Each structure stands twice: as C-alpha cells, then as structure tokens.
Amino acid sequence: MNNIILIDDREDFVIQFVEYAKSKNMSIAHKKSFSGLKEILPLHHHNFAAVILDIRCLLVNEQEKEDADFITVALSYLDRTIPLFPRFILTGDDKEFETIGRYFKQEKVFKKTPEDLEKLFVDLKNCADNSEPLRIKRENAQVFELFTLGKMAATAEEQLLALLKDGLTEKRISEFRGILTNVRSLQEIMYKCIHNRAPLVVPSHVFKPNGMIEFNKLMAHLNGNPDRNRGHVTTTTVYQVQPIYNLANSLYWVCSEYVHGTASRDYQISDYTIKSLINNLMELLLWSKQF
Question: In what order do the strands lie in the sheet with 3-7?
C-alpha cells in the first residue's frame, strides 16, 4: 500500500523508476501530464502517500513538447486543492535544479541521479510510513481489500477511512449522530454492493421502490426464511450465521434510534458504543467478502 504518484512524460525514465520503486516495496501510479495529475488528485489522495513532479512536463497528453510552465501550474494547483499533500520535484538538469531552488525554496527538489533518487526514496518511505490513510489501510488490510477487489463502492472508501481515523477516538456526544449516520450508511452500501454482484444473496425484493432496504425482510432472507410454525426450520439458503445476524441487527437498530432521534434520553450512550458499532461494521464488511 506504499503508493506514490509520478508525473513524468519520459517513458524510458518511468520504466526505470517503476522498477526501482518495486525494489523499495513501493507502487507507482504514472501519469504524463498536468491533466493526468488532476485525474488523481485530490479525488484519490487517500490512496497515495506522495506525488513526484518532473520539473518539465506536458500540460495535456496531446502535447508533443514539454512545457516549461508545467511546474508552476502543477504547484499552484496542488496549493489550491490539496496543500498539505507531500510532493517532490525531479529534474535532470543542473541549471534547472539551481533555478527552482532559488524560486521555490520551500519545495524538495531532487536530481535524476542514483544518489539523489536514493535520498528521494528515503523521504518517500517516510511519507508512506506516516500517511494516516495508508497506516489505517495497512492495519485493516483484509477489509480494505474489498475496494481493491471492486467489491465495495469506491466512493465509500474515504467514508470508511474517516470513521476509522476519527470515529474510534471521538468522545464528544455532539458528534455521535454523524458517526452513526456514516456507520449505518456503510452497512446499507455493503448490502447494495452484494446485490450488484450476488443478487441471490441480496435479492431485489428486499428493496423498497425508493431504493431503501426493507431490513427485516433482508434479515429473514439471509437467515434462510425460518418457518415459525415448524420450529424455525430454514426454508431457503442460509447466507449468514447467527453471530453475523446479531451484529447486523444490533448495528442497524442502534444506529437507527440515534440517527432518527427516537432513542430514549434516559440513558446516553458513550464512546464505547461508537467503537463497538464501528468494529461491528468491520466484521460485517469482512463477512461480505465471501460473495
């Protein structure tokens, strides 16, 4: 998960750089222009630890020649959209190295020499080791594999990262409702994603006309539609064991009470409930990987 972005239009250098990065246990996402940079950042910033910019590059893919304005345009864009995201500049020209050092004193600039590239990768490793999103993904690799496998909506990844970054340590009661809204939302997204790839597991008839899930109907289906008149014997395929049902049921209804403001105010839940429901969600996401 040590993912780095490289913006460089020289294919020969890119090939060498990617191979060198592999030897350092790093993965490179390559784009060759400013347009390519905008495709990745800031939208997918949570997947990457840093960006490397060639000092001279293309503004659009269709250009034939490098544009000297590239670095100014790219840095200005990053300042506006994602100013704290780690960035590094590469150059193969000694004069340009000196020039950018004078005009962009706050930037980290490296030459395309073996010695400087080694120094660059020391900094990149530091970025990867200290990147909060990448740390969270490493610590929860089994769950986040859902996104790399395409089994969970990509738009939900940042939502889950935010939960694990802030939700597990939040103690302010005023923030609980927002956290529980996200937990419940991710649970519903999970079921909808299962429906898209395994409609026998989460079938169409458990959804209302407005697209919302009829939760009790879904639970009955996942539990094998037990017949109460025959000792609760299951009548269809069972997709979830009892502990998973208990987790799903608890998460859905506890969140529902606090999201919709119907919970009794005689007792206020604490941050322990918030932590337990987030971890509850993680177990459900793991369960969903099998389908």
Answer: 27-31, 3-7, 50-54, 87-91, 109-111
Who's near 123: CB < 8 A, 6+ residues apart? Answer: 50, 88, 108
Cα dist. 114→108, 119, 232, 241 in Å? 16, 9, 70, 56
Q: Which residue has the tokens 């597990």?
A: 168
Do the strands 3-7 and 27-31 form a parallel or antiparallel pair, or are they unpaired? parallel
Instruction: Give the max Cα distance, the chain.
Output: 85
pLDDT tens digits, one per residue of 261-291:
776 667 889 999 999 999 999 999 999 999 9
Nearest to 113 by CA among 5, 10, 15, 17: 17
Strands 50-54 and 87-91: parallel
pTM: 0.80
DSSP E strands: which ranges in the chain? 3-7, 27-31, 50-54, 87-91, 109-111
Helices 271-288 & 155-166, crossing angle to 10 degrees? Answer: 150
CA gap 227, 246 in Å, rounded = 19
